[in-house]
Amino acid sequence: MINYNFKKPVFIVNPKSYLYGDDLLKLAKISNGLAEKYDIDILFTGQLVDLPKIIENAHLIVTAQHMDHLTPGRGMGHVLPDALKNIGVKAVVLNHAENPLTLSNLDKTIRRADELGLITIVCADTVQQCKAVAELEPNMIICEPTSLIGTGTTSESSYREETTSAIKHVNSDILVLQAAGVSTGEDVRQVIREGADGTGGTSGIIKAPDWEAKLEEMVSSLSRM
Amino acid sequence: MINYNFKKPVFIVNPKSYLYGDDLLKLAKISNGLAEKYDIDILFTGQLVDLPKIIENAHLIVTAQHMDHLTPGRGMGHVLPDALKNIGVKAVVLNHAENPLTLSNLDKTIRRADELGLITIVCADTVQQCKAVAELEPNMIICEPTSLIGTGTTSESSYREETTSAIKHVNSDILVLQAAGVSTGEDVRQVIREGADGTGGTSGIIKAPDWEAKLEEMVSSLSRM
Amino acid sequence: MINYNFKKPVFIVNPKSYLYGDDLLKLAKISNGLAEKYDIDILFTGQLVDLPKIIENAHLIVTAQHMDHLTPGRGMGHVLPDALKNIGVKAVVLNHAENPLTLSNLDKTIRRADELGLITIVCADTVQQCKAVAELEPNMIICEPTSLIGTGTTSESSYREETTSAIKHVNSDILVLQAAGVSTGEDVRQVIREGADGTGGTSGIIKAPDWEAKLEEMVSSLSRM
Amino acid sequence: MINYNFKKPVFIVNPKSYLYGDDLLKLAKISNGLAEKYDIDILFTGQLVDLPKIIENAHLIVTAQHMDHLTPGRGMGHVLPDALKNIGVKAVVLNHAENPLTLSNLDKTIRRADELGLITIVCADTVQQCKAVAELEPNMIICEPTSLIGTGTTSESSYREETTSAIKHVNSDILVLQAAGVSTGEDVRQVIREGADGTGGTSGIIKAPDWEAKLEEMVSSLSRM
Q1: Rounded to an integer, what is the distance from CA C1 to the centroid of its chain?
Q2: Residue A188 in domain
Q3: CA distance D33 to B193
Q4: Quick one: average pLDDT of B177-205?
Q5: Is residue C79 part of a domain?
Q6: In total, how many domains does chain C have?
Q7: pLDDT tens-place string over residues C114-159
Q8: I need a labelling partner for A91 at 20 to 30 A (CA). Which of A201, B95, B192, C34 fits?
């Protein structure tokens, strides 16, 4: 993993494919303002074609939702890590349940990110998968039971505590994000109290009637931890 | 397929993952100048994060190298067609041998492109695959024997004539591009004389010492057909 | 496609992964008896490790549920066509929605089957996919809207008539099987009356309280067409 | 992992897709005779349709080259673990470089094997992948640099010692197999001396002019360790 001095706890805003264009940029600007106001690290993901505009928001850690492990050359339709780095992308999420990687490709892609100085954030489901991913030495692991994705249901405390502890036992330098179903300030406080290094959201934010109010509720809870 | 009034024969500049950033933009500008000078349609592909800058070159048909068939919503790390359309992408290449699609996903992705008004360019290998793809009604088919990709070797005349004829027999509205190993003005004239509706290149252009001279050699041959 | 003189209409019993071992063999014996009694061609699929026992039922066209396109050599964990042929497998189903193939691999696998003299049965969903598959020249196409798989709901008459007609228009030598949700003698008669060359079932048979009675109801309806 | 009392060091004969039918059975019989003569555990893999005959060789640990993680039900063309168990398969190899699994599916498939009492043997490439796999708790890990597969070149001593040590550090109950390019009695002695719990081969055996002589050379070296 690359060396990066995170302000902990961190927050990830992950609009997946829910938003693009102006809506995505609007959410990025809100996130950028809150990152500055509360002096926290917000990782912000988006569609690749929209990242150049997102990058103008200087307080965000702009994050790709996927990349491949190739080097410049052949590779039609693949996401070239060097192209991401070149426009100012700082981080990449890998192995989300909606875009799973083979173990071999996951390892290779983390190594390519390391070469280029990109932050790696890897998703994992069971305790055993969390430990396996920890051995691959990413910067962060997002623990999320696959069955809960998109449901708005938070994971069990026992799951969160067990996965956080298992990862730290393998490598205490890895930040652990517990984000499943987190959608309120109280959810944020709860998962951080239990030992997570960060949290975040997708549908809990996107589906809120007032993005700014919702994000401020969550982010302000984080900053007071 | 969407209705689009192409200036035939067309040309595709497909830098795959060979180029990104400033180099890619440089090649785009050269291509844009030649598209204007010779009044031809040039499809130009690039890394997704670089497409917003490429789009400023108004004479190019800016083309994604891949997309998925999802609609806005869940889908982490997927390429959302609506996001491409929104920034001004006009076309998409699908099913390249380096990024093959299941038959089902290929069908669904062409249908999503049709909904959004995106030009579809689908790669195919054997005569039977060319006919199968033609039944899916894309705007263009690129015929290329997979074994020749990246070799700089042109396909056989017999292959080109057989695939072009087979596609036209299924659906005469589909444009056929014959581009395998095409890297000189003479190559361009040859494949167009044989009945192709277009051609193009990757390594034949990228590896040339002078991109502008090489592209002008190829494009000017095309425009005189 | 290989040359094979089918007794039409044909029937496919496809237990997928519902059955194995003794239960699968029991269903095979029932099917074998009915194939003989009614003098019809029954294609019968099963788990690969169970096929050697199924093959002892001489009136069945024993069918693999998938194979790869490799030739003997490297290829760990792949299904070698030559190994299937060698034990007496006669046919293979390809591209089921639960096991979709890239267009390129589907083409290659049909060609390998042709080389070895194996009957090819390819699944397809939309009208356009049915036509595309027809261009690849398999012996049979199973038309089934993916959304209906496992639901017990039959496809619409309009879907069945349109797909059958579209396939026959591309290549009238291809047998068309309409099997979505077919689970009664009346369903069988209906799809055959509409022009299908065959039908069959999975859950409609497996979930019936009396397999023999259910199968005889369906198969006897077929034989009287 | 399931509890299994291996005679160490173990040996794996892995003919991949090189052999099938009578040739595969011939190699199985030779392996069976040597397993008995030298009182060692030989894991023997083969095409799924050939496994029922291989199983008659009672001294072999008969091994599938792949399986899926489904339970009985839907799943067309998938390899049902219960069907393997039912015919007497004792072990399964997973995640070979020629058949890589997503991290999530690898975890799920090991868990299904555990449920059914099947031995799990998982392939891994780099030191980091070896450690990650060890966290998933299979019975054995085969360490092999992907770049060497099929080349007949042995891995470096440093690679073998580092991967063995790394795996044992994570979980000392896991047996480590070092088999890359191993093709002589001396190769066998070397890797076992360095700390491996087993070894084996594919092309080193298959391509030998006399299978029995070659296997006996390797296996007898193993038994004297």
Answers
A1: 15
A2: yes
A3: 67
A4: 94
A5: yes
A6: 1
A7: 999 999 999 999 999 999 999 999 999 999 988 777 777 878 889 9
A8: B95
